[in-house]
Specification:
Elements: E1 2-3, E2 11-12, H1 14-27, E3 32-41, E4 44-55, H2 57-63, H3 73-77, H4 80-84, H5 95-105, E5 111-123, E6 129-143, E7 153-154
Parallel strand pairs: 1-6
Antiparallel strand pairs: 1-2, 3-4, 4-5, 5-6, 6-7
Length: 155
């Protein structure tokens, strides 16, 4: 299984994880993901990656009909705040910041999202993959609208 949240709330079979990336490439055609650092210790490969993508309601809605895997349907039909909640750190935030963030995330505007991923690949003695952890965390986001009064929101 692939673990995708720091709280262990989201796990996917590897085949569904790969399908999710295929769909994310369609949902976020401008996405960029780059590896910053890697380190191998014993049978574990750790990598720090950074990403950027634009999240569009229009594109997400258009993909709903093409999603055939039940595990992935919620990614395209639920509110953006539900999709994003595991990737946004809300600790040490004031109520005002939380409300501002919620209003931006649940708006209909397109959002440009920046973040990082902690990736861990675990192997057994025969070099077979025995575990995958893919933990995304959003670091900032802003709207794509000009002069809408919403600036970058640091996360």
């Amino acid at each position: 299984m692939v673990h995708m949240s720091p709280h262990g709330n989201l796990t996917l079979p590897p085949a569904i994880f790969v399908k999710m990336f295929e769909l994310m490439n369609e949902a976020h055609p401008d996405s960029v993901l780059c590896v910053h650092t890697t380190k191998v210790v014993d049978n574990v490969l750790n990598a720090q990656m950074y990403f950027k993508f634009t999240d569009s309601h229009v594109i997400n809605r258009s993909l709903v009909g093409s999603v055939r895997e039940n595990d992935l349907i919620p990614l395209f039909i639920q509110k953006r705040s539900e999709r994003f909640k595991e990737s946004i750190d809300m600790t040490n935030r004031s109520e005002q910041e939380i409300q501002q963030l919620a209003s931006i995330v649940d708006s209909e505007v397109d959002l440009v999202v920046y973040g990082k991923v902690n990736f861990k690949l675990t192997f057994d003695g025969s070099k077979r993959v025995t575990g995958i952890d893919f933990m995304p965390e959003f670091t900032s986001m802003n709207t794509t609208h000009i002069n809408c009064g919403i600036e970058d929101v640091p996360l």
